[in-house]
Amino acid sequence: QVQLVESGGGLVQAGGSLRLSCAPSGSIFRIIVMGWYRQVPGKQRDLVAQITAVGIINYADSVKGRFTISRDNAKNTVYLQMNSLNPEDTAVYYCYVRGAYGDYWGQGTQVTVSS
């Protein structure tokens, strides 16, 4: 069973930056989309950013201009560079991959932004 391995979460002060990384532990056939979602307790999991196999990128309005998603196709790794973080960005961030035969989720990494 392929797992998504995330790294890069942590505690940062408001205005700071973090970079999240996510890579599958094995091979995923024909990756269609890679992205990041986030969730706070009691609320639904929301899309933060995603990038398709052909490089089409979407961002949530709340992160536009502050977050940048990118991918390394050779490593099948997706990154989320988060700048100008604010306390409202505090959440568990989940990596997501859609392949030809199914969807995969990471275990989640906590991002906490202190004011």
Entry keywords:
115 residues, mainly beta, seven-stranded mixed beta sheet, four-stranded antiparallel beta sheet, 0% helix
Write structural notes for this entry.
The chain is mainly β and 115 residues long. 0% of the residues lie in helices and 57% in strands. The strands form two sheets. Strands 2, 4, 5, 6, 9, 10 and 11 form a seven-stranded mixed sheet that branches. It has a four-stranded antiparallel sheet with strand order 1-3-8-7, with no helix packed on it. Strand 4 and strand 5 form a beta hairpin.
User: How large is the count of helical segments?
Assistant: 0
Radius of gyration: 13 Å
Low-confidence stretches: none
| Oligomeric grouping of the chains | single chain
Q: Look at the structure and give the mean pLDDT.
A: 96
Order of helices and strands: EEEEEEEEEEE
Structural class: mainly beta
**Which range does the strand content fall in?**
over 45%
**What is the number of E strands?**
11
Overall form:
globular
Q: What is the terminal-to-terminal distance?
A: 40 Å
Outline the biggest β-sheet: 7 strands, mixed
Helix content: under 10%
Can you give me a brief rundown of this structure?
This protein has about 120 residues and is mainly beta. The chain has no helices and eleven strands.
Note the topology.
Layout: E1 4-7, E2 10-13, E3 18-24, E4 31-39, E5 46-52, E6 57-59, E7 67-72, E8 77-82, E9 91-99, E10 102-105, E11 109-114
Parallel strand pairs: 2-11
Antiparallel strand pairs: 1-3, 3-8, 4-5, 4-9, 5-6, 7-8, 9-10, 9-11
